[in-house]
Amino acid sequence: MGKILVLAEKPSVGKELAKVLNCTQGGNGYLMGQKYIVTWALGHLVTLAGPEDYDQKYKSWKMEDLPMLPKDLKLVVIKETSKQYKIVNELLKRADVDELVIATDAGREGELVARWIIQKSGFKKPIKRLWISSQTEKAIKDGFANLKPGRDYENLFWAAQSRAEADWLIGLNVTRALTCKYNAQLSAGRVQTPTLALIVDRENEIKKFIGKDYWTVNGKVNNFTVNWSSKNGESRTFDKQKAEDVVAKVNNQMGTVVEVNKASKKELPPLAYDLTELQRDANRRFGYSAKQTLNLMQRLYENHKLLSYPRTDSRHLTTDIVATLLDRLKSIAVGPYEKAARNIIKGRIKTTNRLVDNSKVSDHHAIIPTEQHVDLSSLNKEERSIYDLVVKRFLEVLSPAFEYEQTTVKIDVKGESFSAKGKIVKSKGWREISSSDDGEDKDQSLPPINKGEAVKLTLARSVNEKTKPPARYNEATLLTAMEHPGKDIQDESLREALDNTSGLGTPATRADIIEKLFNIFYMERRGKDIFPTSKGIQLIDLVPEELKSPELTAKWEKQLQLVSKGKANSMNFVKEMREYASKLVKTVAASGEVYKHDNATRVKCPECSKYLLEVNGKRGKMLVCPDRDCGYRKGVSQVSNARCPTCHKKMEIRGDGDNKIFACGCGYREKLSAFTKRRDKEKGALDKKDVSRFLSQQNKKDEPTGNSAMAEAFAKFNLK
């Protein structure tokens, strides 16, 4: 009897599948049972060949060799993971393997991981697809009982490959053209460049903005606050004298209640989370980056099996999920969620097409808890934060509306109009669940008041404020702008078309795009705000105008969606990208712009002697070589969790070895030895090894789990 080969995307998933499929015989890079052999990739094992694989001349970057447009883009095995590819390839070629089950992540990129391996190996036997939205034992068993024909997902593969080829053709050609033209490490891309343009455009708006003074008028009536508005309904005036005249006219004067409106209102629960909405909330509430949230979600989905598939763009459920809602509620009925979950179960689960709508789910439904019982103590702090957001949102969407009575009062005082709003809560509904007040109205409670009643206005005053520039983007607002890049477009039909696309990138790729823009020093974080660097600002001036356009990129993403549904031809899309790459190279070559390294230092690169550039990296300041072929980098300082004893801000660590010092922007300096002595005196509990561990940790790349226990210990260490 032949065997069925199952290909997972990662070892952790492969081992879980093997457990369910009774594959216990350990092999090298695979697990085998009576019926199944389970193996895995390590992410991508195969990728598109680099330019030098087509022609040796491409090893040198020269403008005259551009554009690079190979007739057919080839696949190559990734060197670093070639050992695992060899194992998978041998399994695919086994005579006793009759069928393959693709069990990579159920999405566009997961499909590409598997299909490129299949293509490279020349596998021709029958293929089936495991398509599941959670990694629980039940979901895996159900998935294998309902395997789909592989051909059903061929269009998804064509869309994925088209995306990869488009990024190769445009990204590599434009990056080489810019680097050759301006002799600087510059890169551009189909999605990253319009995303950067959003940041740069916002910075330009802020710089050009000139604030204007304006005044509002308020006062007290029966101990509640009323606000003035002009005859045309404006609640502010740019005329200081007008505001002062209103105050003089109405203060301590009698007025009449001319209107009292009471209306019963309902506020429906929010929609369930898709990945982008979850990333927004996690950034707003906890300061997590989009990438960090995705990594945490992946662990909660893959390792803990507590949440459904993360890379989804849907905020709705499909009808087949309704039958599982009771078990999902039972699984989360613990600790802080028990009361709300039990109440929903007791009151019988009610769903509407606001939550359940097959037409609004493409590949995967919204992110919700699985039927797996949760042990909250098994989650670390960051995992718990994300789990908490998803579970509370799940409970909210299954809860009744928030109901209240809204009262609006209008008062006339000497011909001037004042108003107030008040609210009486009738039923908290879904708002009972979340401890957060985000989005909740702060309306005051109004005492009984009747139309025609005479009232006295007291404590009238004018308040001077200033118009504010648009806020800088943070990751939450940047994700929104990427999702809806057409918001500021004047052309209504184009704006509407853009609203129906996924915007810049997809929920699965946006986190990586944002992270890349930080890593290549086009933008930097200052607190939560994102600022473009000089390099980023200059790049936007240098790249061809069309490549900055979110409209164009969103249209391309829409074409890829059509390809994935079999409604557009992938070859036509790639042909268009080839033509576009040629056009962009010509535009860059003909440009008369100049690039200036305004962050150059007087420190020479030890490898090639060029002057190094100072940049703000993820962990602190770095010196980097401007020569792409050299690539030398050196850390100058890292931001620590230790607080300055003078101003209590986080200090930087500078220098090497025993010469390390802690330094603060306020001017405070302290040698490592003095810091250690002071820390011992104040805390006593930690030894010298703790300090070394902390210092070595500063050099490590940020982990998605956030601060370790040691970093948190130092964070508390403000040594006042």
TrEMBL record:
Q: Which reaction does it catalyse?
A: ATP-independent breakage of single-stranded DNA, followed by passage and rejoining
**An annotated GO BP:** DNA topological change
Q: Does the keyword Magnesium apply?
A: yes
The residues responsible for catalysis, as annotated, are 309
Task: Tell me which residues make up the Toprim domain.
Answer: 3-136
Site residues, Interaction with DNA: 61, 168, 176, 311
Q: Name one GO cellular component term.
A: cytoplasmic replication fork
Provide a Gene Ontology MF annotation, just one. DNA topoisomerase type I (single strand cut, ATP-independent) activity
What ranges does the record list as Basic and acidic residues composition bias? 683-692
Q: What is its EC number?
A: 5.6.2.1
UniProt-annotated stretches for the region Interaction with DNA: 187-192
Q: Which SUPFAM superfamilies match?
A: Prokaryotic type I DNA topoisomerase
- Which cofactors are required for activity? Mg(2+)
Q: Where is this region: Disordered?
A: 431-450, 683-709
Q: Which residue range or ranges hold the Topo IA-type catalytic domain?
A: 153-585
Q: Which UniProt keywords apply?
A: DNA-binding, Isomerase, Magnesium, Metal-binding, Topoisomerase
Cite the binding residues for Mg(2+): 9, 105
Tell me which NCBIfam families the record gives: PRK07726.1, topB
What family does this chain come from, according to its entry? Belongs to the type IA topoisomerase family.
What is known about what this protein does?
Releases the supercoiling and torsional tension of DNA, which is introduced during the DNA replication and transcription, by transiently cleaving and rejoining one strand of the DNA duplex. Introduces a single-strand break via transesterification at a target site in duplex DNA. The scissile phosphodiester is attacked by the catalytic tyrosine of the enzyme, resulting in the formation of a DNA-(5'-phosphotyrosyl)-enzyme intermediate and the expulsion of a 3'-OH DNA strand. The free DNA strand then undergoes passage around the unbroken strand, thus removing DNA supercoils.
Q: What protein name does the entry list? A: DNA topoisomerase 3
Q: Which organism is it from?
A: Clostridium tagluense
